[in-house]
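Inputs:
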Amino acid sequence: MNLYNFVENLASNPFLSQGMVERYLKSCQEQQDMNTSEFIRNTIAYEEADNNYLACETKVVSWD
Amino acid sequence: MKKLIIAGTGIKFLSHLTYEAQRAIKTSDCVLYLLNEPAIKKWVEDNSNKAYSLDAIYFSNEKRKDSYSRIEKEVEFFLERYDHVCFVTYGNPVFFSSFTSNIVNSLKKEEVNIEIMPAISALDCLYADLAIDPSEQGLQSFEATSFLLNDQIFSTDTPLVIWQVGVIGITDIIKQETDLRKRAKYIDLFIDKLTKSYSPSHECYHYVASQYPGVQSNVVKLTLNDLRLFDVDRLATLFIPAEKKKSINANILKLLKEN
C-alpha cells in the first residue's frame, strides 16, 4: 500500500487505532527527519512528481 | 444555461469533502482547482472528467492580487467553453477567498447560474479541537493584516480569532520560506496593538488544523508576548480567549427577572 492509499484508507476508517496510525507513520518517518504532516505532504508530492506542494493563500488585504 | 459550482474541500483530506462537493467534482465538464495539499489534488485529478490545476497561474505572479485576477479570468474563460464548470478551493470556498467573491460579482450580469457549496473551514476545526461553543461568549474574527491596518474595534471580553497571522503584512506570492522574513516586524506591531488591550502574559492558542485523518491538529498554548519569537505557521489561526468577564446590564437583568 503506498502512502496515498494509506491516507485515503485513514479517511475511510475513523476508528482506526491511533497507535496503528502512529506506528506506520513513525516507521516511514524514520527514514526522513520530518514531522508527520511534512512527511505525508512531501511523500505524496514526491510520488506524484509534483514538488509544488507549497501552501497557497487565497485572500489578500492590500493597501495600495 | 451555464452553471458554475464553487466548492470547498474542507481542511482534512477527503474526510471533509462533502457528498455534494464530490458529486460536483465527478460530474462537472471540467474542474479548476487551487488546493494546498497534494493528496486532495490527486483525488480531484483521479475523480473528474477533466481537471486543470491553477498552480501555474497562481505562482506566475509576484503579487497575490494579480494571481487572483488571472484566476478569475481563467474561470470565465473555461465557462465560455464548458457548460458545467466546478471551481474547487480548500476550506470553505467563501472564507478568506478573494477570488470567490470577485468571480461571483463579475458573473452576476452574465447568464451563469452560480452555486456555492459550503465546506468545513479552519474555524470549524478550531471550534471542535478546542471545544469552543461560540454561543457562550460570542466571537470576534479578523484577518491579521486587516486587523493591523485598520483602527479595528475589538473587545477583550469576547474571544478573538485572527486569520492569516503567518502572512501578516505580506501581499506577495510566497515561493519560499525566506519570503516570510519581513513579517517579523509586522508580528511585533501586531503584538504591540494587542497588548495595548490585553496583558502581555495573556495566553493564546497558535492553531493549525490537521490536514490528514489520524494526525492530530497542532495546538500550541503561549503568551501573546511569546508570539514575537515564535515561528508562526503559514496555515496558523490565532485564538485569543477573553481576558475580561462581560458586564451584565443591570437594567435588562431587572426587566428579565420581572417577567
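The radius of gyration of chain A is 15 Å. Flag for discussion at group meeting.
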